[in-house]
Amino acid sequence: MKIQSRKQLSERIHSGTRYGNPVLFLMFVLLVTETVLGEKTIPSPTDRIQTEKGVVEIYPVNHATFVMRWNGQTIFIDPVGPAERFRSFDRPDLILITDIHGDHHQQGTVSMVRQESTITLAPQAVIDKVPTSRQSVYRVLGNGEKIAINGMRVEAIPMYNMTKERLRFHSKGRGNGYVVSLGGKRVYISGDTEDVPEMRSLKNIDVAFLCMNLPYTMTVEQAASAAVEFKPGIVFPYHYRGTKGFSDINQFKKLVQAETKEIEVRIREWYAPRE
Asked: What digits encode the pLDDT tens for the residues 147-186?
């Protein structure tokens, strides 16, 4: 069943009720009820970052998953888990998928949260794991490729492991980090990676989301060293739960601040209590 926009649904219902269609009349009643009771309330963002064209609002959801809203558009990064996690948000205009692993991509979740007009960008390795009948809703963006979408520019950045004992987790060329440019700001999303040269050589990054969990990605020391080198204006540690618990994100903050006062480290809650 195609998901229609509220405007499209309202127009169709209005047309149908004039001609006595009972199904559409029922839909009309439900729509009016929703309007009377009030539409969903989008939660308050943890962060609001000013751009040349409005504010970027940031909403951590869980682990590698978060939402950004900017200039009337909603962006989902690695949406996974139950649809209830996303019911407080508008359906996304853009979805970014970083990797094949289940904490970054679940085809069922993408199907539940998207709308017909949603653009879903992913590396080829992700799309290869999607049933053929569903692959058309994805667009391939490979390492180093760029695309302009709705006033934004998205660039895929390589993400991979370099440490010998971690090479089996993320091979070079398989997954994507992303730099999203919107309203004159550049937002870097690391995905699952170590402090690779492509990260360290980034320029003019205003906001960065850096992973740091073992054994899959990198240590807090690696992440801090990389941040000090490419100097984002603001950095959020995220994706920091590993097989033996949580990485010490406060230590990450101390390491960064010991080297420079030019980077603001923002600690936010990415995991539910007891999770």
From this structure: 999 999 999 999 999 999 899 999 999 999 999 999 999 9
Q: Reply yes or no on whether the pLDDT at 1 is more than 60.
A: no
| 87 and 54 within one domain | yes
**Region 4-25 average pLDDT:** 48
Specify whether 8 is located in the same domain as 135.
no
- In a shared domain, residues 99 and 60: yes
Range of the domain at 196: 45-265
Number of domains comprising the chain: 2
Torsion of CA 70, 95, 119, 160, to 10 degrees: 120
Phi/psi class of residue 204: alpha, beta or left (left: φ > 0; alpha: ψ in -120 to 50)? left
Peptide bond preceding 215: is omega within 30 degrees of 0, i.e. cis? yes
Write down the pTM of the prediction: 0.85
Is residue 202 situated within a structural domain?
yes
**Strands 245-246, 241-242: parallel, antiparallel or unpaired by DSSP?**
antiparallel
Phi-psi region of 273 (alpha: psi -120 to 50; beta: other; left: phi over 0): beta
User: Domain check: are 9 and 86 in the same one?
Assistant: no
